[in-house]
Amino acid sequence: MLLVGVKEEKGWLTSKWQLTYPVGWQRICKAANLAYDYYDNLEILIDNVKVDLSSKNDLLKLEEGGAMTIRGMSKIIRVPLMITFFNQSDVVNVWVACASEEFKEADYQIFNRSLGQYLDSMELAMYINVIE
Fold first, then answer.
1. Residue of 82, 78, 75 whose CA lies nearest to 101
2. Whole-number Å distance between alpha carbons of 60 and 63
3. How is 8-26 classified by DSSP, letter by letter?
4. Could you write out the DSSP letters of every residue in 53-110?
5. Virtual torsion, Cα 22, 127, 47, 35, nearest 10 deg
6. Rounded to whole angstroms, how far apart are CA atoms 94 and 64?
7. What does the angle CA 85 – CA 86 – CA 88 come to, to the nearest 5 degrees?
8. Contact 53, 43 (CB under 8 A)
């Protein structure tokens, strides 16, 4: 993913990213399936409505919506993280709490280095086969 921009806003670093290609709902669900194990207190929202999940594989069966948000405490970067994918789009919005030294200010280069590989992994997950 390409980092388009990042800014600090009310204690959060808000950023916009661009996927290599626009993606549909099934690919977004695959990305969420990958992310599932890397959050504490994970919440999934479809069009801003929280979805109840009984297992990770429920993510692969969600009814299609306009946007999916993944949010919770990231086990990887160790701060609250929220990612929103938009159906049939190449736009991804990401919010990271300014809760550690690494995420105190909206520095493009540092932010890209901190999150780029993680978000690239999510994008790659969109193109793999997931075994249920």
1. 78
2. 9
3. EETTEEEEEEEEEEEE-HH
4. -SSGGGGGGPPP-SEEEEEEEETTTSSEEEEEEETTEEEEEEEEES-SGGGSS--HHH
5. -130
6. 21
7. 125
8. no
The first and second tokens of residue 63, run together, are 């009814």
Collapsing DSSP to helix, strand or coil, 118 comes out as helix
Give the chain's residues under pLDDT 50: none
Residues in the chain: 132
d(CA 80, CA 115): 13
By C-alpha distance, which of 92, 76, 75, 77 is closest to 1?
Answer: 92
- Distances in whole angstroms, Cα of residue 125 to Cα of each of 31, 77, 98: 5, 19, 27
Provide the edge-to-edge strand list for the sheet that holds 39-46: 2-9, 12-23, 89-97, 80-86, 67-74, 39-46, 49-51
- Phi/psi of residue 32, nearest 5 degrees: -65, -40
Domain extents for the chain? 2-125
> Taking Cα atoms as reference points, which of 31, 41, 52 lies closest to residue 94?
31
Separation between Cα atoms, residue 24 and residue 95, nearest integer Å: 22
Amino acid at 88: Q
Amino acid letter for position 47: D
